[in-house]
Specification:
By secondary structure, this protein is mainly α. It has three helices and no strands. The radius of gyration is 21 Å and the shape is elongated.
Length: 81
C-alpha cells in the first residue's frame, strides 16, 4: 500500500472562448460617438443577454476591432518632417 492519494481522472480542459479576449479589449475603452460606439453597445447588449453569449460572433468583434484601429489611425496627427 502506498501513501499517495488516489488520482482522480483529469477533467477535460475547456478551450478558452476566443471572443472573450476581444470583448475584454473593449472594456473601459473610449469609442468615439457614432457608428463604432453604437455597434459596441449592440454587441455588449447581446453579450450580456445570455450566459452563453450566443448572439455575438467572433467575426463581428474582429470587424469592430479593425474599424476602431482605422478610426484611431485617422485621428493621429501627422508627424512633421
Amino acid at each position: 500500500m502506498s501513501n499517495e492519494p488516489e488520482s482522480t481522472p483529469a477533467q477535460p480542459v475547456q478551450p478558452a472562448d476566443p471572443r472573450l479576449k476581444l470583448v475584454k479589449r473593449f472594456e473601459n475603452r473610449y469609442l468615439p460617438k457614432g457608428e463604432l460606439r453604437d455597434r459596441w453597445k449592440a454587441i455588449r447588449a447581446k453579450w450580456l443577454a445570455d450566459e452563453s453569449h450566443s448572439g455575438v460572433t467572433l467575426d463581428e468583434l474582429k470587424a469592430l476591432k479593425v474599424d476602431w484601429a482605422k478610426a484611431r489611425e485617422a485621428r493621429k496627427p501627422k508627424a512633421k518632417v
